[in-house]
Amino acid sequence: MFTRQARVLTRILILALLAIGLVACGRKSSNAPLSYVPADTSFVFANIQPINENQFKLQSRMFAISLPMQIASLRKLSQKFKTNDPHAAGLLDAFANELDQGSLQAIAKHSGIRLKGLTAIYGIGLTPVARFQINDINAFQAMIQRLQNGYGQAFPKTMLGKQAYWHIALGKAPIQILIAIEGQQGVLALAPGKANPELLKRILGIQRPEKSLQSTGQLNELADHYGYRKDSIITDIHIDRIIKTVFNGKDPMLLTLLKNKMPVLPANCAVDAERIASRVPEISGGATRIKADQYSKRIDIRLAPDIIKAFSTLPTYLPGLKSIDKASLAILLAVPVAKIRDFWIAQADAVAAKPFTCGKLTNLNRAFARMRANLPKLGIPPIGELTGIGIVIDQLPTPHSTGKMTGLRAHAIVTSSNPQGLLALSQATVPGLRNTHIKPDSVPVPINAPKLSTRIAEPLWLALNSHHIGVAVGQNGNEKLAKLMKAAPAQPGFLMAMHYTGVAMSRLLDNFVTMQTRRIAHTPRSSTALRAKLHQALQNIRKQMQMIRSTNIEIRMGKQGLVLTSQTEIKPN
Asked: What one-character-per-residue DSSP string does 66-82 give?
């Protein structure tokens, strides 16, 4: 297992990888970082073309917000190591000093990393490697020297052929950090402590892959297929390859972490594991639109054909994203209970027909059998008739000294295959609705509910049609509810939409942290330090939210799996 020092140094590596990912851009060439990435890598985060200047400016602003907290955290952690591990403490302080340059541009200049270079963070099996371009070799070497000075001793340096590299042991852990300079490129890796020469050659680039992502153009094809911008970091994670690597039992990093005690698994275990991985074989993503005031992203989750078929033609009758993009905070969520029930019944039946045979996975057979026995209960009305839920908040409430909520402006919608039945049940169980007479014509009527009025000091409205039940709170709530009830439904396959403004999200976060602070104050282990940490986290998130005008998020089932898209409007700097 990792020692505390190992966890700390690993954290440093992760921060370094993130910083490298933020500053990377560059030109395509046969010596580009992608030419070192195996075509069958399990994961990669890389850009193909120079990163868009607007994206870099936005990332710099975000980085500047979180940077002070990261530096303070490193310095505080360093204090804890001063007595027992001065080397780790010194390295933490040195790394904090490298980050404490005022801006991302200053950090890059101080470290020698090229702002207009290419980067790739990828896996050689399960061994993570980062390769990036260096603008100033002398500055990069000076940074390494400063880190060594902080550490209190030189990092061991070794030659492999003609390639030199530094290696830093992670305490008593069986892994190490490798740093190398190859031409005008830097290499940073987390490798097995006793990595064999063949793995080291691949990490250091002495031995390139026979087929790389550069030579095959796979990342280019992925970007073209899904519309990812090539001047942004593109993510591609192959779940199926990771599972196959794990169950192969030969990966050096895996064997190192397991201290060479990898159990010998029967062949049927690998078959069962690949069967599970085939359900979600790949996840990819990237930016699709980058402007000074707008940043759009897309994430694609590939799924098995039967999952796609079950949900791609799903009609929920919920309105689409356009119906909520003017609200302060809103969410539309497809809840096709009957369809979900039928899908999981089919999955349970498939497992019953072909059970998992691997001893480590046979508990899944029992879990699916129990689930199959309980799933029919989801068909019971009114739950079994639900197809969607939507909540739209135009104005958040203000607590009143009398206990009433004032100032709330919101409307909600519930879609059902039997809205009349749902209304009848609501009127039977909620006394205040019994005297509310309504027609299925989408026209909101006032709710005559004295008990509800004692809690909510705003007008209440109710509406009904053949697919929806709607409720509204607040002045003119009937007008907005009527529009929502008549809005055009989203396209089949729609699963979720969300909209929020930075102002509304900041206010919600304020309320959440206030509640958490009160809770912490009454717990036995509460501390001033914990409350301060929570407050600092809130300040960072609030600053990020202050950059945002609004964000729209949508999830739908596409032809190849789940598609998550987001569009964020950015305020000027």
From this structure: HHHHHHHHHHHHHHHHT
